[in-house]
Amino acid sequence: MAIISEVLLQKGSQVWSIGTSATALQAALLMNEHKIGALVVIDQGRVAGMFTERDILRLVAERRDPGETSVGDRMTTQVVCCSPATSVEEAKSAMKNRRVRHLPVVGDDDRVLGVISIGDLNALETADQQQTIFMMSEYLHGRV
Q: Any idea what the CATH number is for the domain that residue 56 is in?
C-alpha cells in the first residue's frame, strides 16, 4: 500500500502559497504563471486556507473585482490536510468525500511539506495498473 510520502518523492515537494492579504488577482496571476489550480494560503506560518480555481469562479460570478478582493475573503477555510504517512487510498477517499482536488501534506510541526492533487493520485494509479498489465502479459506469454 503506497503512502503520500512516496508520492511526494516522485512528484517533488514544491508548494506554491500566498498570504491572506494578497488580492485574488495576484493569486490568479501566480496560479496562471505556474500552471497550477490551487494555492495554499499561509497565515503566520500555518495553513489558513486554500485558494483554488473554484474560488475565482465564485468571485467572478458575484461580479466582484479580483483586484480589490483579498484572498482571505474568498479562500476555502475548511482545509482537508493529510500527513506523509497517510495511505494513498485514504487520501483519495478524503478527496472524493470532501469534494476537493488538492490536499496539503502537513508534518507533525504543522509545516506544509507538499501538496497532492487528485491528478497526482490518478497518475500513480494509472502507472500501477500499467505495470500490472505488463506483468500479466509477460506471464501469459511465458516470459516471466
A: 3.10.580.10
